[in-house]
DNA sequence: GTCAAAGTTTGACGGCTATCGTACTTATAT
DNA sequence: ATATAAGTACGATAGCCGTCAAACTTTGAC
C-alpha cells in the first residue's frame, strides 16, 4: 500500500478551503508551530491538546487545503509547512496570521507600564 | 430606545473572532463589496442571496468582530467598513483577502489562452 | 391616522464538524 | 516472532451555526 498521501497542486488552492482550515485554533496552532521552527515536525511532536485521532483529522484538513506536506520517516509522519507555495497562491495571508498583533500581541519586552 | 448598536474597541479585536466572521462566504462577500466601493451601503443594498433575517445575523457577526460600523439613516441601516482600525489591529489581513489571487484570480485581460 | 419600507427578534430545524474511543495497520526494536 | 510505537480508519456523539418564516418595531410618506 502506498503510504504517501495526495497533496493538492498550488493551482487548486482556494481561499475558502484555506480559511476553513485556519479558522480552527488547533489547526492554526499547528501552522504557527511549523512556521516558528522552519523544520519538519512529526504529528506526535506538536503541542496540542487533542487525542491522536482528532489530530489525524486536523492534519488531513491542513494537507487537503495545501497548508502542509506530509511524508513518512519510519513510523513517524513528518509535516512541512508549504510556506512558499501558499504565499504564491494567497499572498500575505500567512504573513498576516504570524504578525505580533495576530498572535496575542504582548510580546513582553516593553510590556506597557 | 437607542437604535445605535454597540461596537467593540480596536483594543478588543481578536484574530479568532475576525477569522470566524470572515470564513463565511456571505459575510466575506459583504466585506468585499464594502471594500470595493469605499462608501457606506445599506443592509438591503448588498448583493447577497439570503433572507433578511439571515442578513441581520451576518451583519451582527461582522459588527461584533469589529469589521463593520453600523448607523441608522431613516429606516435604513448603513454599513461602513472599519478598514483602518482593522488594519491597525490585524495588519495585512484584509489586504490578503482582497488580492486578485484571493478572489478567483482570472481578472480577464490576459486570460491565459 | 394609515400604510409601506427596512430591519430585528424569536424560535425552529438541519447539517456540518470537532471530538473521542476502539480497533486496525505499519514499521522498528529486541 | 513479539512487542511497542506512531498513526489511521471508523463509528458515534454533541454542539454550534447558517438558514428560514413569522411576528414585531421603527421610521417616513401620503
TrEMBL record, chains A, B:
<keyword id="KW-0805">Transcription regulation</keyword>
<dbReference type="GO" id="GO:0003700">
    <property type="term" value="F:DNA-binding transcription factor activity"/>
</dbReference>
<dbReference type="InterPro" id="IPR011991">
    <property type="entry name" value="ArsR-like_HTH"/>
</dbReference>
<dbReference type="GO" id="GO:0003677">
    <property type="term" value="F:DNA binding"/>
</dbReference>
<dbReference type="InterPro" id="IPR001845">
    <property type="entry name" value="HTH_ArsR_DNA-bd_dom"/>
</dbReference>
<dbReference type="InterPro" id="IPR036390">
    <property type="entry name" value="WH_DNA-bd_sf"/>
</dbReference>
<dbReference type="InterPro" id="IPR036388">
    <property type="entry name" value="WH-like_DNA-bd_sf"/>
</dbReference>
<feature type="domain" description="HTH arsR-type">
    <location>
        <begin position="7"/>
        <end position="101"/>
    </location>
</feature>
<dbReference type="InterPro" id="IPR051081">
    <property type="entry name" value="HTH_MetalResp_TranReg"/>
</dbReference>
<keyword id="KW-0238">DNA-binding</keyword>
<dbReference type="Pfam" id="PF12840">
    <property type="entry name" value="HTH_20"/>
</dbReference>
<keyword id="KW-0804">Transcription</keyword>
<protein>
    <submittedName>
        <fullName>DNA-binding transcriptional regulator, ArsR family</fullName>
    </submittedName>
</protein>
